[in-house]
Amino acid sequence: MQEVIKHVACPYCGACCDDLEVTVDDGKIIEVKNACIIGTEIYHHASREGRVGTPRRRQPDGTYKDITYEEAIDFTAKMLIKAKKPLIFGFGSTNCEGMAAAGRVAEDAGAVLDNCASICHGSSFLAIFDTGYPSCTLGEVKNRADVVIYWGSNPAHAHPRHMSRYGIFPRGFFTGKGARGRKVIVIDPRYTDTARCANQFLQVQQGHDYELFDAFRMVMHGYAADVPAIVAGVPKEKILEACDVIKAGRYVHIFFGMGLCHSDGRNHNVDIAINLVRDVNEYTKCTIMAMRGHYNIAGPGIVWAWQFGFPYCIDLTKGSVAHMNPGETSSVDLANRGEIDAFINIGTDAGAHFPIRAFEKIGGAGIPMVTIDPSVNMAATVSDVHIPVAIVGVETGGICYRMDNVPIQYRAVVKPFNGILTDEQLFDKIYERMQELKNAGIECDGTWDYATPLADVRPIKEVYQ
Amino acid sequence: MNTVTITMVKQPQLFLEADLITPDQFAGKSIEAIGAIEISEGKIKYPLASFAKIEGVSGATAAETKIVLNGDLTRVKRIGQQMTAGEIIINSNVDMYTGGWMKGGKITVNGNADSFTGIAMAGGELTINGNCQNHVGSAYRGDWRGMTGGVLRVTGNVGNDIGTFMRGGTIIVGGDAFIHVHTHGEGGTIIVKGNIQARVGGQSVKGDIFVNGKIDFMMPGYKYVEDVEKDVDGVKAVYAHYVGDLGERHPEAKGQKVFTNLYLKK
Ligand code: SF4
User: Fold this and answer.
1) A17-51: b or e for each residue (b if 16 or more CB lie within 10 Å)?
2) Which residues pair with B191 in a beta bridge?
3) Does the C-beta of A17 come closer than 6 Å to ligand 1?
4) Which of B87, B164, B96, B73 is nearest to B124 (CA)?
5) Where in chain A do CATH 3.40.50.740 domains reside?
6) Residue of A7, A8, A10 best suited for mutating to test ligand 1, as the one with most atoms within 8 Å of CB
7) Tens of pLDDT along A276-324?
């Protein structure tokens, strides 16, 4: 019998659209309404052919053999206890319940706990530590903002419904005219599809946003006359014009993306953006928000800040003292420097997202590796063990934090494929097994008897030479 | 002054955290007691003696203790962290946080040092006869109080974030720097004898920056004032004097706004 489930939240991007209608027939997803194309796809993934329904262990010849959950949990628990500095990285695509359970495991294991922010908006966190975060909710942007700036972000492709639900087009309480009542400024090195919706487009020279922000701040501090004729490729008149629009706005909002936090200077690009917000507040109301990528990548920041006091890059190897210093305790640096001896890739794909030279140090170094993910991703293909889990927002519900740190209740629309576990159940079982093993006398002695180096992973240099 | 010599005899699989290698910790201890000092590799703690041979005698106080480190220390972090007096000589490359939060005494590294060297340094002398990576003399994440005192000298090149949130002391770089020098500075002096790519004095409130080489991309917020003659690290030369960052808040003293001074060698 067909059933239409309403008010479903989309487990894809940080816009967390919660107005989806999913038609289900006999446990199969038939149709998804209201979602954008990428959102729709995630639901159809669930019923695709070729999904993995049981944990798998890599064999010496590189093929995979199905194993039981007990065996997979035992391998993971033992690895976490034995390793001197295991890294648990990912959490881009899971719920807060799974993150909290992983936090308990990481603390017990003395692991480094890190999430995808480390390779994404982590640098924005650093800026927020330095200068604060004068932010708001997406509802405030929709209902109040009459000047919207997208800086270094391209929601037309990365968050397809962001502009229509929050940023540019919606009619809100004080913004009854919708797009006609809003001034939109886009600042980007490329003329993006988002820029096509803008009233003003400033083409900043790649990697020079910091200088452009400085020029904006000079205007706000009354030094407009001293702004050079061209800053970061943008003519002075255009900067002054944009500043006039900003000063005349009733409520100005800046959305910033990876253009800032992943070009040279990283955190300082965001830090100066936040300082510009402070300056603009001398003239009118102004707020700022990071365009977080995944639907719950804001989640680990919230959950772990509550558990450990830090949002990411948390080194728990010293027991009760959590230490955080990205550059040292960040996943890519740990991998690059050869500072970890076990790796769990959960709810992300380090194989696809790490710099290749960092990932080959994990995949090629004989470091034991476990991937926890519903699908066979690149990291899963080089892991010792791959444990499939239920897809959050499709097969299991839970709390997820939207990009503005508003929690959204996600829900399951179908049952987990083949009865697979959720992330939370899996981590709870790993925790229980760790206690059993510790009670049986297994301890960290820095020795291995089970790591199986992959013979065919060669340094990338060799492959291309 | 008494000397304790430490020679690395074994390399760790990962990295060692040796924040207890300071004259303060060694002072008044026997060689056996120094050998029992804990260093950690991930979650395992080892006695120092399991990685190094220890010889000599320590002084009664930190000020009377000198530590000489030989062998390969490339994978050892946090040497000299929070030291208050005495001397450390490292005849090797070292890893991160060397001389971090140090308050006094003297460290000399005859080799390269990694990132966070002299982070939040408050006093003493830290000399790296080699190159450094990033965050030299900078603040710890989220701390608005960076380096407050002391002299940090790097003879080679450095990366980014040199003296971020600096409030006092002096950083002298013999070679080039990448980006972000004296960002958010609230005091102190930075001298870079080589070139800097960009972002010198961004968001800087006050302090002095001297650059003997070229800056590829100047911050728009710096304004030329006049040419001046200055004595920089013992050498007199004519510099173009700029003030800024005009895009940042600035305090007032005697009815005048106080700016950061950027001196660019002519
Ligand atoms: S915009 Fe994002 S959250 Fe909304 S439907 Fe598309 S992918 Fe899902």
Assistant:
1) bbebebebeeeebeebebbbeebbebbeebeeeeb
2) B172, B210
3) yes
4) B87
5) 52-120+296-464
6) A10
7) 999 999 999 999 999 999 999 999 999 999 999 999 999 999 987 899 9
| Structure-token pair, residue B71 | 């062998």
Q: What per-residue confidence (pLDDT) applies to A449?
A: 55
Position B248, amino acid = E
Locate tokens 């791959």: which residue?
A386
Residue carrying structure tokens 């995949």: A363
Cβ of A239 below 6 Å from ligand 1: no
| A407-410 and B2-8 beta bridge pairing | unpaired
Q: Quick one: residue A174, left, alpha or beta (phi over 0 = left, psi -120 to 50 = alpha)?
A: alpha
Burial label for A54, CB within 10 Å (0-12, 13-18, 19+), is middle
Q: What interface predicted TM-score (ipTM) does this complex get?
A: 0.95
Which CATH number does A122-290 carry? 3.40.228.10
pLDDT band, very low/low/confident/very high, at A451 (cuts 50, 70, 90): very low
Q: Which helix (H) or strand (E) holds B35?
A: helix B31-35
In this structure, how many other beta carbons lie within 10 angstroms of the beta carbon of residue B155? Answer: 16
CA distance B60 to chain A (A): 31
The answer to whether the beta carbons of residues A155 and A167 sit under 8 Å apart is yes
Q: Which fold has domain A52-120+296-464?
A: Rossmann fold (3.40.50)
**Cβ contact A183:A214 at 8 Å:** no
Residue A273 · residue A258 · CB < 8 Å: no
What residue spans in chain A does CATH classification 3.40.228.10 cover? 122-290
Handedness of CA A363, A367, A373, A376 (dihedral sign): positive
Q: What is the pLDDT of residues A119-170, one digit of tens each?
A: 999 999 999 999 999 999 999 999 999 999 999 999 999 999 999 999 999 9
Q: Are B90 and B71 in contact (CB under 8 A)?
A: no
DSSP A130-169: HH------HHHHHHH-SEEEEES--HHHHSTTHIIIIISS
Residue A34 near residue A361 (C-beta atoms within 8 A): no
Residue A457 pLDDT > 60:
no
- Report the residue among A18, A34, A38 best suited for mutation to probe ligand 1: largest number of ligand atoms under 8 A from its CB: A38
Q: What 3-state class would DSSP assign to A74?
A: helix
pTM listed for this prediction: 0.94
